[in-house]
Amino acid sequence: MTQVAPAALALRGTLVHCPALGQVDILNDHLLLIDERGFIAHVSPASSESSQNYISQHHSFVKTLPPGSFLLPTFCDLHLHAPQFMYQGTGLDLPLMQWLDEYAYKAEESLDQKPDLAKKVYHRLARRLTEVGTGAVLLFGTIKTETNLILAQEMQGAGVRAFVGKLSMDKSSRPTYRESSAEHSLKSAEDFIQRCKASVAEFVEHQRLVEPVITPRFVPTCSDELLEKLGELSQRTSIRVQSHLAESYGAAKWVKDERGIEDIEVFKKHKLLKRGTVHAHCTFLNSQELDELVANQTAVAHCPLSNVYFSEKPFPLREALDKGLLVGLGTDIAGGYSIDIMNSMRQAVAVSRMREGVRAIESGSTPTVGSQARSLAVGWKESLFLSTRGGALALGLENSGEFTVGASFDAQQIYVFDFESSTAVGALDFFNLEAERKSELTIDMIEKWWCMGDVRNRIGMWVQGRKLL
């Protein structure tokens, strides 16, 4: 008889994940075992010999999930400005560069001056991320090391997997909010990296959820000297890198006028276009420049709502995916007003469908949305991949974003329908389920949740095996 080792957590129910772009697998009635370190140790149908053996021996320990619910990998948010969470949902009527002056820099400077406020804002941010199912997040912070350490501590304490970036910027349109020199900025980045790592050193490796990230804000706020030094620091330490790239016409023109080259060339020149780097937006990159990202194994954080407000054109998502570019989704708080990646998924699909419509009109052809013909549109299944497994791969989390043995158990429990009472959950409505006597989750039910679901459908969440919700 097949033996299965004891587990720290045993769950039986429906699993849903996206192992590949456009693929949604529904694993009905599976047994999932998680070891004491928070890794998946066993996953197979509950009817299999190994699963039946475990269930018979540990029946009282196995938690069975309701048939109208399912486990899904947690979401990954590849671009979020933590201090801007303070004014989320305001000031979106201004152009990007003016918005930075009027809102972003002031808010960031305020948190750097008020550690108690920073702790309050970041504590609430961590709570909101948990509520919306975000288990991993790539964060822009502020320029002050201590404030970013508060951010790191709040994320670690809340159990959220976080990559924290202390901003590096020796140039600014706000004189009081910049670092005094490239040398000072480099030393501050090095100091933050060391202290951020030290802040989680007391934990065993699998419990260290926070990592530092080298974060030149974007080319207009960084001298060539600073970018060169940060590139060298990244090469020397293998620390991840994040920044903004080709976000808006104004920002791109600023760089071209000042430096004489496009900002992608600036990043490449200073070795900041490489594996382990995530660049947000990239809306003003052409096909050849997207190829450069692919060749350098650089990922993109696609933030569709923010692009609507602050970029004059959408990101070419379909073309990027066809090229094999690593792409995940971001909320870009507060350039985007919603912290929920579910909205980023919906917006990514909506924007792509509009792009396909424009393509068809301009070419005099018929839109190919939903057909097998070449289309610029992406579907909801593809967006679900981008928010889970795709985002994890973009972050370098190879063992995350799917339900396989050896993967981190980063999961959320979604409840859509109570079959016992024939009652739907939250904003969802189903008809004829009782008459049809269905008791298994279907792809149509998942699509309905994707379109209309909200926080009321999320009844559980785990990161590295630790229950957060």
UniProtKB/TrEMBL annotation:
GO terms for cellular component: cytosol. InterPro entries: Amidohydro-rel, Metal-dep_hydrolase_composite, Metal_Hydrolase, Metallo-dep_hydrolases. The keyword Zinc applies. It holds the Pfam family Amidohydro_1. GO terms for molecular function: guanine deaminase activity; zinc ion binding. It comes from the Eukaryota. Its cofactor is Zn(2+). Residues 70-412 form the Amidohydrolase-related domain. GO terms for biological process: guanine metabolic process. Keywords: Hydrolase, Metal-binding, Zinc. This is Amidohydrolase-related domain-containing protein. It comes from Paxillus rubicundulus Ve08.2h10.
